[in-house]
């Protein structure tokens, strides 16, 4: 089979582009859907399966299945730039719920604790946020993409394996602001660095307010140079022509650009 036409165009794609991840699927599942759609359009799915080849594609930072927003995808040599997305700046909007803690630290989990929050004012919340700005120490959630012996902690927990919390580690928080306060709900805008967990932040805010709290909703609004409103491609735009144009239009946003070479099989 000659690799030309749509197949040739697909295999020549190289760079980074952001897609919109809705609530529900995992980041890996969404990437699988994108990959499958492109391979079907190019007529390559069965061809590459027979030759045990795959399209070189990956994402630059897991979003929780219950979260939505920007997910940066690398294709071709663009996969080499994904580490910069993992460590770079990100922005989130989250709705936290005071008075309720869960095992997953968000609304998808089982409630483990309930406490009063009547004593908490907006001023109290804003004062507490000052201690969560700059470089802080943070304990990652047990339910996370972090791994032990090559397996995700969240998978081990769901299999009934006892998992110890990872030690606190330094993370960077550039800005946090309260955009809405209607107890028990509060909304935060957050700009942070790599390795940061919004669920852990909301948990720790609840403790600092002598209550407890968990994430009700979470949206990533920016990752690296890509914003939710300006750049993200929705599922209906996942086609070779649209992605090719996006790679060209947004290449100038990246600090370094991979060569536009045909992919080698992994």
CATH architecture of the largest domain: 2-Layer Sandwich
In terms of quaternary structure, the protein is: single chain
Q: Helical element count?
A: 8
Specify Rg, calculated over alpha carbons.
20 Å
| CATH superfamily membership of the largest domain | Pseudouridine synthase
Structural class: alpha+beta
Helix content: 25-40%
Strand proportion: 25-35%
Separation, N- and C-terminal Cα atoms:
19 Å
On the 0 to 100 scale, the average pLDDT is: 86
Biggest sheet descriptor: 9 strands, mixed
String of helices and strands:
HEHHEEHEEEHEEEHEEHEEH
Q: Can you tell me about this structure?
A:
- Belongs to the pseudouridine synthase TruB family.
- It holds the Pfam family TruB_N.
- The structure is a single chain.
- This protein is of the alpha+beta class and 266 residues long.
- The protein folds into 2 domains: 111 residues, no CATH class; 134 residues, Pseudouridine synthase (2-Layer Sandwich), CATH 3.30.2350.
- It has 8 helices and 13 strands.
- The strands form 3 sheets. Strands 1, 2, 3, 4, 7, 10, 11, 12 and 13 form a 9-stranded mixed beta sheet that branches.
- Helix 1 packs antiparallel against helix 2.
- The two termini are 19 Å apart.
């Amino acid at each position: 089979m000659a690799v030309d036409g749509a197949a040739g165009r697909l295999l020549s794609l190289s760079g980074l582009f952001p897609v919109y991840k809705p609530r529900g699927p995992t980041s890996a599942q969404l990437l699988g859907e994108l990959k499958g759609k492109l391979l079907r359009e190019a007529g390559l799915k069965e061809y590459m399966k027979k030759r045990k080849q795959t399209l070189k594609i990956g994402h630059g930072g897991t979003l929780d299945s219950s979260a939505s927003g920007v997910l940066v995808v690398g294709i071709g040599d663009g996969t080499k730039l994904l580490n910069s997305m993992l460590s770079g700046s990100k922005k989130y909007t989250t709705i936290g719920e005071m008075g309720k803690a869960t095992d997953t630290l968000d609304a998808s989990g089982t409630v483990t604790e309930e406490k009063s929050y009547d004593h908490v004012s907006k001023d109290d919340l804003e004062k507490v946020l000052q201690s969560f700005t700059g470089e802080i120490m943070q304990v990652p959630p047990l339910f996370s993409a972090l791994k032990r012996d090559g397996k995700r902690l969240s998978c081990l927990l769901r299999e009934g394996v006892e998992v110890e919390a990872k030690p606190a580690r330094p993370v960077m928080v550039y800005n946090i602001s309260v955009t809405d306060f209607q107890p028990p709900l509060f909304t935060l805008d957050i700009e942070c660095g790599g390795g940061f967990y919004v669920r852990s932040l909301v948990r720790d805010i609840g403790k600092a307010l002598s209550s407890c709290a968990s994430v009700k909703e979470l949206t990533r609004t920016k990752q690296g140079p890509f914003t939710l409103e300006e750049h993200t491609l929705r599922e209906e735009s996942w086609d070779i022509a649209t992605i090719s144009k996006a790679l060209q239009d947004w290449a100038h946003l990246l600090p370094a650009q991979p060569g536009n070479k045909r992919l080698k099989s992994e």
